[in-house]
Amino acid sequence: MAPIIFVGGTLLSLSVVSLLPGLETVSEIIVDQISNFLAAFGSGTPIQGLLVICLTCSFVGALFDIYVYYRCQILRLNS
Hints:
mainly alpha
């Protein structure tokens, strides 16, 4: 969920910034760059790219949790 919240918050803040006069162009360029970045991971679709990044982060988080659990068991046995 963290990548979705981060990307969603970034896009939301850029939409608010685009309401300010003179900053529309800058915010549009940044949104396009974010969309291109996500599309690179999602076979051309930004939504699929965001899902790929989210799944990767959750997989890494699960591996980290398994490692911490294993490490805790080893330390408990050695004490």
